[in-house]
Design goal:
By secondary structure, the protein is α+β, with helices and mostly antiparallel strands. It has one domain: 2-Layer Sandwich (GTP Cyclohydrolase I, domain 2). It has 4 helices and 6 strands, in the order βαββαααβββ. The strands form 2 sheets. A 4-stranded antiparallel sheet has the order 2-3-4-5.
Amino acid sequence: MWCSEGGAAALLEDAPAGSPVRGSAISVPPLPGDDSIFLRGLRVEALIGVYEHERHAPQPLVVDLELGLAHSRGCLSDRIEDAVDYAEVAAALRRHALANRRELLEAFAQDLADSLLRDFALVSVAVTVSKPGILDAADSIGVSIRRWRRQCSDA
């Protein structure tokens, strides 16, 4: 049985046994044999920001997702019913961006990771959230996180 309870601290402890990320904040690629799908450059608008002026109008965000799967049955069946539907993931991101007001990109990314792990048959998720045009000297600023689904022992 899989579950995602426990919060951010517990999620780091739930990385695969022997993984260098277990108990730390180091990111690692999916395990050999695992499948992943990605969505890159998803553009959404969200009420997000530390400063007062940022919280009154939606801010543009660019989101990259890597969704880890234990094994994609869609590889063998060629049926969407056996795969994670990219359009559904993109729609979930849009709903998340509209419904959640956060100050920090870190919190936005964490909430999104929790939501995707809860709502889709994923083993892990990597979320990168970029906010363009914030610093004059940079194209964008952002954060990247990777989280694993918590494996429960109570079947």
